[in-house]
Each structure stands twice: as C-alpha cells, then as structure tokens.
Amino acid sequence: MAELPTAKKKTSMHPLIVFVVLLLLIAPSAFIQGKNLPMWLLGTMIMMVVITFVWSKLALWSLRVTRIISSPAKYGEPYVIRYEVQNTSKWFTGFSLWIDEQTEDATWQNCFRKSRGWIMEVGAGETVHGEAFFWPTRRGEVTFTRICITTSFPFGIIRSNKVVHQKSTVLVHPKVLKLRPDILQSINSSEPYGQHSGRHGQGGDDYCGLREFASGDRLGDIAWKVSARRGELVCVQRSRPSLSRIRVILDLTTPTKLLHCDKDARLLEEDAIALCASLLVEAVLQEQEVGLTILGFPSLEDSGMQSGKRQLNRLFASLSRIDLDASRDLMRIETATNRKKIGLVVIRPDSAWSHHTSRDVKCFSGTQLAELQSRVQRSESA
C-alpha cells in the first residue's frame, strides 16, 4: 500500500508583519507618485492602527481582574487558577483577552510550567470567568504577584496590556505514590503500641459487638453460648476500639552536601519527602491516626495525632513548606522517638541511621522509594 503524503504544518503570519510589508510597498507610491488609490490605502492603514490602539486601551481601562485560588496544588496533577474579569464600562466591549502571570517578584515559575488563559468576550457591564491550567513540576510554597491582561483586537497590529497587582500564595503538595500494602502491617507488627486501642472494656452493660478471644481478656467477658456454637472463644466487645496511631518522623537534620549517597542528594531528599507523604496517605486510607515530626526545621511544629482528610491536608502543608536550601538545626532523634503507645517510623534521605535509635522504630530511607512502591505503581511509571 502506498504511503499517504504527510500534511505540512502551516504557520500563521503575524498581522504586524503583513502591515509593515504593505506599508513599505504603498508608502513610496503614495508620497512619490501622489496617486489617489495608494493615498486611500495608506490612510486606511493608518486608521486601522488608530482604531486598534484606541479600542484596546479603552477596553482594558475599564476591566477589573481578580485571581481566584481555591485549593492547594498537587504534584503531577493539573492545577486550575480561575480569573474573574469584570467590565465596568457601559459602552466598550473587550474581545480576545489573554491572561498571563508575570514572573517579576514572584516564585511560581519555580514549581509550575508557564500557562495562560483566554477569554473571547466581556460585554459592557458583564462579569466573565476564565481559567488557566498550570502543571506543577515540584513541591513547594510559591507566590503569584501580578496579572497581565492583553488584547490586540480588532486588527492585531498593536498589542495593549494592563497589569494588576494581586499577591497570592499557593502550596504545591509533594508527590504521592502507591506503596505496598504490607508496609503499614510491618510497622504495626514491629511496634505493638501502634495498635493500642480501648478494646478491653471496663465492665458495664455496653455492648458494641463480638470479637475473638485475646490474651489478657477476663473470663467475665467471654460469650459462652456464642463460643459453644462457633467452637472457639468469643468475647463481648464492651467499648469501641480506638484507631491505630502512627507518627512519622522525617529526619532532615543532615545538610544536603553531607548526605552519603551516589545520586543527586537533593533528589534523594525529595524522595524522602515523597515517601513520607505516601506513608501518611496510606495510613489515613486505612483509618489510622497519624502525626508528623520534621527534624531540622524547628519552625515546623509537631502535629497532633488525628485521622481524616483535614489532618492529612495539615500535614501536607507542613511538607510543602520545607525549604531545603535553609539552614538545618541539629535535633536529637531520641527526643522524637521517646513516645509511648505510638508506632514510630523514621524516614531519612540516606541510610545513615542514628545508633541510638530504638529497635522498635521502623526506619526507611529515600533510596528505598522505588522498592517500596506497589507493583501497579511501578509498572505505570515504567
């Protein structure tokens, strides 16, 4: 079968280039020869420039632009920034409006790819909403400072713009990966206090269900009739079990230059933060109470032990605000691991663990991120 010819990519020519070429062709004939037709054409071209300049300036002068930030951004997912454009004029309409974020006095370009929004029309006295899709490329806390709205309607010859100052802060949450399901099981089994619950009732008439017999249960809690039918010991649950509790300790006390690793040390620190975020998400999905301690940055306080999406957003906000270029404070890990009835996990960028770490503490490093991912996640990334 013969191959079909591929279509050539067409490129559009800017109207200003066309205008300059026509001006160079018509102007000599109009001024030197003095003919009527070239003079009319030259006058029409000048009127086009004047109309474009006046209309675009008057249309932009009556526009009010407001940036709308709704939620934090997530690494690897498109982030939508909305703009509210209000036209206060009663006579002029804005057409073909482009909205850009300027980089002057801003830091958003460090974590987002450049994007822009477009609005076809804003009528007199109307309010229109537009969107721009930004793609997060890294974790962090960024600022947006200036909005630039541009138009070259109607002929595209002259471009006019208006800059609006509005400062906004956006948090980009760290990367989250799907971990192996046995990771949390190994943490709970290595630290029995991580499964601490109030399953042993204090007596009374409360009935919350039945459960299997466990070591330490009283004879008065055994449901003898049910045990006889099932052929195994079953106890009466007189209080609801509390959630398992896990505290993740992110050890970033070692500066980037002093890490023991063969790959890029900064990427290794980001992998450690991603592993910490992934472990927190997995624990919340399994309905466990989680807490976070970040060593090396005393400004980021320890979080309380809670569960749920709100707690996860608070912990992710702390991870997003970590500035790896800032100076590190030496904090002893023993003070963070000296906690009772809580499963403890320590995450470091490298594998240089403290010799004083308790044996009951589960330790991971950023170098283990690839092997701790689930098989499905690894196949998708491959």
Overview of this structure, please?
- The chain is 29% helix and 26% strand.
- The chain is built from nine helices and 14 strands.
- The strands form four sheets. A five-stranded mixed beta sheet has the order 2-8-7-4-5.
- α5 links the parallel β11 (245-251) and β12 (289-295).
- The two termini are 35 Å apart.
Mean pLDDT: 81
Principal-axes geometry comes out as elongated
Question: Strand-residue fraction?
Answer: 25-35%
How many domains would you count in the coordinates? 3
Gap from first CA to last CA: 35 Å
Total helical elements: 9
Poorly predicted regions are 189-204
Biggest sheet record: 5 strands, mixed
What radius of gyration results from the CA coordinates? 32 Å
User: What strand line-up does the widest sheet have?
Assistant: 2-8-7-4-5
- Measured as a percent range, the helix fraction is 25-40%
Tell me the structural class.
Answer: alpha/beta
Task: Give the SSE string.
Answer: HHEEEEEEEEHEHEEHEHHEEHH
- The total count of strands amounts to 14
Fold topology:
Blueprint: H1 15-33, H2 36-61, E1 63-68, E2 73-74, E3 79-87, E4 94-102, E5 116-122, E6 127-134, E7 140-151, E8 160-173, H3 182-190, E9 209-212, H4 224-230, E10 234-237, E11 245-251, H5 265-285, E12 289-295, H6 309-320, H7 333-337, E13 343-348, E14 362-365, H8 369-372, H9 375-381
Parallel strand pairs: 2-8, 11-12, 11-13, 13-14
Antiparallel strand pairs: 1-3, 3-6, 4-5, 4-7, 7-8, 9-10
Helix pairs in contact: 1-2, 5-6
Summarize the structure.
The protein is 29% helix and 26% strand. It is α/β, with parallel strands linked by helices and 382 residues long.
